[in-house]
Every structure is written in structure tokens, then in C-alpha cells.
# Entry
Amino acid sequence: MITEKQIENKIKRLLADRGAYYFKHFGCKFSRVGVPDLVCCYKGRFIGIEVKRPSGGIVSEIQQINLNQINNAGGIGIVARSIEEVENCLNYININQTI
# Structure
């Protein structure tokens, strides 16, 4: 079974290969709760990626609220259970990029 960490590592490699800026958010008692695992910028678009394992990974209410806030602010907030979901997101940005 593939783990959340394995999916995250594949996503980070994909982001690096595509030239995206990203960082891994590590939560602590001083940080905002529910921030997505990966915070990215790709071709001028803000992306928050909450990584979950393919089966059984549950998005908490506060995580979903944060993803909704990102989407409502004009960014892209997604839950990724596979690298393909992130590839689809990046391809969507490539197709719909405004100059």
C-alpha cells in the first residue's frame, strides 16, 4: 500500500520538475491550523495541496475550510490522493493560463 509520504514525495518531484515554487508546511503550536501540506505557486497561480493516502485518508473540517478559503480567494485548493490529480491541476493551469 502506498503511503501519504510516498505520494507527497512524488508530488514534490513533479512540482520541482515543472518549475513550481513550493514548500512543505509543518504544523506546530504557533502555526495556523489546517494549512495544506504543500503550498505552491505555479505560473502565477497559488495552489494549496492537502495530501492524503488513496484509501482512508480523511480531510478534516478545518482542512476543508482552508481549501475552500483558498478557492474563494482565487487560488486552487485541492486534495491529492495521487500524483495524477496534481498533474491534472498543473495541466489545467497550462491550458487556462492568461498572458
In short: The mean pLDDT is 93. The first strand starts at residue 21 and ends at 24. The two ends are 42 Å apart (CA to CA). The helical segments are 4-17, 61-72, 83-95.
